[in-house]
Specification:
- Helix content is 24%, strand content 28%.
- The chain is built from seven helices and 19 strands.
- It has helices at residues 18-29, 64-78, 126-130, 140-143, 159-169, 188-196, 294-314, and strands at residues 5-14, 35-37, 51-52, 62-63, 81-83, 87-91, 97-101, 105-114, 118-120, 136-137, 151-155, 174-178, 200-203, 206-212, 219-224, 232-237, 240-243, 247-249, 280-282.
- The strands form five sheets. Strands 1, 2, 5, 6, 7, 8 and 19 form a seven-stranded mixed β-sheet that branches.
- The chain is elongated and about 65 Å long.
- Bound molecules: flavin-adenine dinucleotide (FAD).
């Protein structure tokens, strides 16, 4: 990178989901003059969904994009400096920390808030894109409510898949758990709960290979024992297709410096957003393997700004 544009700020926020924008709102009001870079998905994951019914304060629900536009507007109105840009390199070896944006701007910061989210993993079927929001979901807590008394599939064989299947079994009339292997990877206790549920049926050694339906998902194409002589093709009518094969936290850039768990979630001091590096804070889904909700992300964005403020007060 030759002759980068250089800037120095007190508080840099990376990411523009509920966590990033909320951090910007609080950091601005604490006079930290935060600079926020929005990344490839301004507004974050909620901009990919339709109505959000579980964000407090909206009795009739709110469109994901509208909610995120309002959060952004609120931060801007308070004075936050919000810009397009992707963090492409991080040097957290010493303070002030150094982040490169779009390979052309070098920002030095005293406090860094990482709010880059976690991306759900998909199988990679073209139909997953085609029916996104039309029957395909990667979040039972978010979308399960729309499938009351309907038939759904959950793809996956680990703890998360079992949890999602159990959650959905209380809403849907029938849940098929599609498992690639001939066993579940979930804990024994979790497996037992799934086996005990009368409306969950597990289809082992089965791959989902496609979806069908006019506008919304109406069914899934399955292959049992794919590639074996006794391979079986099944077309199963369903209303919803839930992926539960994991998430990829967007923490790779900081891997060298920050402690993460085995799946890449940034580890924070319990009850706070503090990471193993002083002055670096992680908020939202990037540090949350458990809840991954807009409201929890927003709440941790608030915590991150307060944590950053406390840190900056004691490190003038
Ligand atoms: C389809 C769908 C529907 C959902 N529905 C609901 C719902 O109804 N209710 C609910 O509570 N939750 C819902 N969720 C979950 C919710 O969207 C997330 O929990 C929440 O958005 C997490 O917020 P976040 O701020 O941690 O990260 P995200 O919203 O994931 O935002 C991450 C941000 O980081 C930015 N970023 C990433 N890498 C970089 C980089 N290198 N440089 C700069 N920026 C970067 C991205 O551009 C993005 O702006 C849904 C999720 C999806 C996918």
């Amino acid at each position: 990178m030759s002759n980068p544009i250089k800037e120095k700020v007190r508080c840099l926020i990376i990411g523009s989901g509920p966590a990033g924008y909320t951090a910007a709102i609080y950091a601005t009001r604490a006079n930290l003059n935060p600079l926020l870079f929005e990344g490839i998905q301004p507004g974050g994951q909620l901009t990919t969904t339709t109505t959000v019914e579980n964000y407090p304060g909206f009795p009739d629900g709110v469109e994901g994009t509208e909610l995120m536009n309002k959060l952004r507007e609120q931060a801007v109105n308070l004075g936050a400096d919000i810009r397009p840009g992707i963090a492409t390199y991080a040097d957290l070896s010493k303070r002030p920390y150094r982040i490169i944006i779009d390979e052309e701007t070098e920002v030095e910061t005293d406090a860094l808030i990482i709010a880059t989210g976690a991306t759900a993993k998909y199988l990679g079927l073209p139909d997953e894109q085609k029916y996104a929001g039309m029957g395909v979901s990667a979040c039972a807590t978010c979308d399960g409510f729309f499938y009351r008394k309907k038939v759904v599939v959950v793809v996956g064989g680990g703890d998360t898949a079992c949890e999602e299947a159990l959650y959905l079994s209380e809403l849907a009339s029938k849940v098929y758990l599609i498992v690639r292997k001939d066993y579940l990877r979930a804990s024994k206790a979790m497996q037992q709960q799934v086996y005990d549920k009368l409306n969950i049926e597990i289809l082992f050694e089965t791959n989902a290979v496609g979806l069908y339906g006019d506008k919304n998902v109406e069914g899934v194409y399955l292959v049992k024992r794919q590639g074996h002589p006794d391979e079986e093709k099944i077309s199963l009518p369903i209303d919803g297709f839930f992926l539960a094969i994991g998430h990829q936290p967007n923490s790779l850039l900081y891997k060298e410096w920050l402690q993460t768990d085995e799946n890449g979630y940034i580890i924070t001091v319990p009850g706070s957003t503090l990471t193993n590096l002083q002055g670096v804070f992680a908020a939202g889904d990037v540090a949350d393997p458990r809840y991954r909700q807009a409201i929890t992300a927003a709440a941790s964005g608030c915590k991150a700004a307060i944590d950053a403020d406390h840190y900056l007060l004691s490190h003038k």
